[in-house]
Amino acid sequence: MTTGxxxxxxxTDPAENLAFDEAxxxxxxxxxxxxxxRNPVCVVVGRGQRITREVRxxxxxxxxxxxxxxxxxxxxxxxxxGNLNVxxxxxxxADRPLEALGQxxxxxxxxxxxxxxxxxxxxxVGDAKLCGFAVFRTKTGLLAHSTLLVETSxxxxxxxxxxxxxxxxPLDSHRSxxxxxxxxxxxxGFPAVEAAVRAAASQLLGTFVPRPPSAAELAxxxxxxxxxxxxxxxxxxxxxxxx
Length: 243
Known about the structure:
Layout: E1 3-7, H1 14-26, E2 33-37, E3 42-45, H2 51-54, H3 57-63, E4 67-69, E5 77-79, E6 83-91, H4 97-112, E7 117-119, E8 122-125, E9 128-137, E10 141-149, H5 154-160, H6 190-205, E11 207-211, H7 215-229, H8 232-237
Parallel strand pairs: 1-2, 1-11, 3-4
Antiparallel strand pairs: 2-6, 3-5, 6-10, 7-8, 8-9, 9-10
Pathway: Protein modification; protein lipoylation via exogenous pathway; protein N(6)-(lipoyl)lysine from lipoate: step 2/2
Keywords: Ligase
Domain BPL/LPL catalytic: 28-209
């Protein structure tokens, strides 16, 4: 089976996390890469989405919640320390990357004691979404990532994200009721949740060997911070600065 990398990195700034997330894809490893990470409180919109359609802007401004943009498509998500982000980078071309990520997250949630089902752009327990999925492709690989609600409350998510607009457009988020592991009665703690994700990834995709970030990944992170993630226009409307 394949041997991949389990990258162990932690950044305190959400812009640095988003830049490193993309850097893992841009460096284009020849084997799978797994990264588990958490953000401070923020809202993250998909690549082509309009903030005014997705985010309760006034509430975010009132509470000092930053609104950022990622490079992948998919819907808008709320991040906080109660939410585990899972990044999976696969060498390309690869078929059905969201299916691979869905299988990993489904197996992990099953290990934790719930009965999941893969639905529209996410993983559900009953009628409530537990994980959202998004994907980003380049010529050399693809990045699939997920948010897993571990302790974050549904009410907190709804405080900062809009409800479904009356005039749906193709890039709008698909709103669903959400519920965290804690709201399903599970409080295993983050070490146990991370261990379940790592075990599921290894079972389905091969061994993942822990390692620190590479010099190339950190260099690409710095470049992306300059052209995108420290550039206000990127987060506002997706415009990036010339390299």
